[in-house]
Design a protein that fits this description.
Layout lengths: L17 H28 L2 H26 L11 H13 L1 H22 L1
Length: about 120
């Protein structure tokens, strides 16, 4: 049996500043709990039939939002990997909202990889 592995080019970014970590946490909460909390609010205000329909529609809408966010920030060669809401939030925050932090982190990683390559020679 042939095993095909996808090379991991970039690891999930590590957020260094507190502001970026808070933003990633808020994005993760948005992705995870928007459907459920909105359905509960609709159930409280209206009726449970409307809440059920709202829940189903929001699962589809949040899935589309999640897929758009994932495909906009994760490199094309790594899209075959499974990313949970936390991973998508970290990628999105690092690439779209905290660009300076992401660039510095990648430069440090490239520098470390170059040092490892020099030590191997």
């Amino acid at each position: 049996m042939k095993n095909d592995y996808i090379d991991l080019l970039e690891p999930t970014p590590v957020l260094h500043t507190k502001k970026c970590k808070i933003i990633a946490y808020i994005v993760r909460l948005f992705l995870q709990f928007t459907s459920l909390t909105t359905a509960l609010i609709v159930w409280y205000i209206y009726d449970y039939f409307i809440a059920g329909a709202t829940l189903l529609i929001l699962f589809v809408v949040m899935g589309i939002i999640r897929a758009k966010m994932r495909n906009s920030v994760i490199p094309p060669t790594q899209r075959e990997y499974h990313y949970n809401d936390d991973g998508i939030a970290k990628w999105f925050t690092a690439k779209e909202l905290c660009n300076d932090n992401f660039k510095a982190s990648n430069e440090l990683q490239l520098h470390n990889e170059e040092q490892i390559d020099l030590e191997k020679r």
